[in-house]
Amino acid sequence: MSSSTQSVLVVEDEASIASFVSLYLKNAGYEVRTASNGTDALASAQSEQPSLIVLDLMLPDIDGIEICRRLRQKSDVPILMLTARDEDVDKIIGLEVGADDYMTKPFNPRELVARVKSILRRAAPERKEPESAVLQHGDLVIDAGRREVKVGDEEIQLAPKEFDLLWELLDHRGLVLTRDQLLERVWGYERLVETRSVDVHVGRLRSKLKTAGRQIETVVGLGYRFVD
Asked: Mind listing the pLDDT tens digit for each residue in 48-62?
């Protein structure tokens, strides 16, 4: 396997899902390996050292939560968890044991590829150093180290959660982030935050960013997206 090509291990016991996920990932330029159960997944993760693992929650022998827990004892490989359930507890437990993101079935395979790209981009060595992390979109510049936001030459004063929310939206530009995902990523699990808090913070961002803020698009019934 070429060292310049990123690899993805798809752990999924439903052959049809594993097949079309693999096809889309291969078309996006990734090397793909598959495993249909937890035992094979753990063995493959150790021998293949994939760049990322797409991990189904429900497997015939070892569930995704336990696989994720075992992997995290020895590895920080990015993990995107798939779940057929739409229960908050599954999402929260999955992320608490070390998954980087989750998607609920059924899902759009193009969105899965986009999320894989986003996770790998965030996991890249140059992005692990917050003091050097800078995001830019047009005349909007976010400096993570300085906790500074500028639109052109004008510095925009943001509250901590407003800053973190803007970073997540811009870092996932083009992707829809649900309110639940934003609550988990920005606020964490230790606080119970009403969904309305996300809407209020987005409104404040739009107001403070003026023209640039209009690039935060509301996707009715889903969440928000920073559009290109």
From this structure: 999 999 999 999 999
